[in-house]
Amino acid sequence: MEIKVDDLSGGEVIKLLEEHLVDMYATSPAESVHALDVEALKSPGITFFSGWVNGELQGCLAIKQLTPRHVELKSMRTSNSSRKSGVATKLLTHALNTAIEKGYRKVSLETGTQKFFQPARNLYEKFGFTYCEPFADYELDPHSHFMTRELVEKFV
């Protein structure tokens, strides 16, 4: 899989992000949806990655700088045709290694509490994320789980 920093100008990426937002609003109350839209993902403090195989989009993931040492994972999404094929693992490995290369030492995320989000939580746990209190501007929410981990050495 080729993983690249994406400028969010391609139709395939925009369509995947729109599907992501539709799912988020379908599974969580509107006030508990923290997914960013395309314009917000173009912010200077965000690095957006897309993963491709043979010219077909497989998934995406972004890292958002919170402080010079702390980033947040945003917009993790695998295309429907690529689910359970290792795409999310490859994207997460790449994003975490990129964060380490850029000098970040901590990564956190917010994900849903609903059953829909269980595969994502399983993946994050596999990568050593642990549950934590809300971070940055988040507040306690019965529809949100918060997870974090220190970044020390590269992932293989």
From TrEMBL:
SUPFAM superfamilies: Acyl-CoA N-acyltransferases (Nat). Keywords: Acyltransferase, Transferase. It comes from the Bacteria. Residues 12-152 form the N-acetyltransferase domain. InterPro entries: Acyl_CoA_acyltransferase, Bact_Acetyltransf, GNAT_dom. Pfam families: Acetyltransf_1. This is GNAT family N-acetyltransferase.
